[in-house]
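Onboarding guide, step 5: your first structure request.
Type a short instruction followed by the sequence, for example:

Predict the 3D structure of this protein.
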Amino acid sequence: MIDRMVELRKQRGLTQRELAQKMRVTHCCVGRVETYERRLDIMETIRWLRVLKLSDNEIIEFLKRAL
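The system replies with structure tokens like these:
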């Protein structure tokens, strides 16, 4: 799931720092998630996907595929 989220971030042309700024977290936090050092809970995952501009339906499909 994280690999796909990294792919989405890159497809949208965002750096880790830019994503972190939009999420109002440190870039270190984004980096730790992307290197599997930190897990996201479901609410953080949804927030992350919304920042990446996924619609609610796309988020549901994304989460279904991750299960």
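Each response can be followed by summary notes, for example: The two ends are 9 Å apart (CA to CA).
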